[in-house]
Amino acid sequence: MTNTNDRIVVEHLSKSFGSREVLSDVSFTVKDQEFLSILGPSGCGKSTILRILIGLIEPTSGKVFKNGVDITNFPPAARKMGIVFQNYALFENMTVLGNVEYALKMDKTKKADSRRIALELIERVGLSEHLNKRPYKLSGGQQQRVAIARTLAVNPDVILLDEPMSALDADMRLSLRHELKSIQKEFGSTMVYITHDQEEALAMSDRIIVMDAGVIRQLDTPQNIVEHPADDYVQSFVLDNMKLKMVSLAGFNIA
Length: 255
Prior knowledge:
- The chain has helices spanning about 45-55, 95-105, 115-125, 140-155, 170-185, 200-205, 220-225, 230-250, and strands spanning about 5-15, 20-30, 35-40, 60-65, 70, 80-85, 160, 190-195, 205-210, 215-220.
- With about 260 residues, the protein is an alpha/beta fold.
- It has a domain at about 85-155.
- The protein has a six-stranded mixed sheet with strand order 6-7-8-3-9-10, sandwiched between helices. A four-stranded antiparallel sheet has the order 2-1-4-5, with helices on one face.
- A hairpin with a 2-residue loop joins β4 and β5.
- α2 (about 95-105) packs across α3 (about 115-125) and α2 (about 95-105) packs parallel to α4 (about 140-155).
- The longest helix is centred in the C-terminal third of the chain and has 18 residues, at about 170-185.
- The radius of gyration is 19 Å and the shape is globular.
């Protein structure tokens, strides 16, 4: 039975591509207005979960519920979820305004107010002075802000983010991290965030799923993961790697 505070419930999700199993009996919940990160190395299955949630691929077995409704076989357009990709996926022939307004014009209920909504969101993400520029005239961080504004425009129940900061430099990642958390709080958004960056997950998340080879090793708050890692893998991947990064950033020789 689903909890009324659960926005998403994933039950016993498995996925195989041919003979290769990439997810094995994965179950978790995402609470309403929660920022949940799925943390793990490349190939652990985290992006496969995201693509199943949005409806881009079907699970081999298991179910996905949203607001208590089984959406496992729903097409992407019927799921009321938005997605922000790593590569921004903006329309290069459209301006910032055109990109944000595009999805609104496709929705008959929002078409009349599309310009007003788009302008408000562009202002909210700090791009009003760039609204007539095309993507190639923007920095990576600015392009990512456009992608976030475009996703917010259609007011999705859940926003999925697929390593949205991995192509940005350290300063831009830090700035966008604060901006994203601020946007989440302002809009009361439920966010599922895919990342391989331990610091990012610990700093931004209400809870974190730590994954390894298609299974969940720990699902917990950042504090509990730091203070009570579930096993040697979580200790090594999250905490030991964090310590190495901190030493490296401090300029010490860790060899």
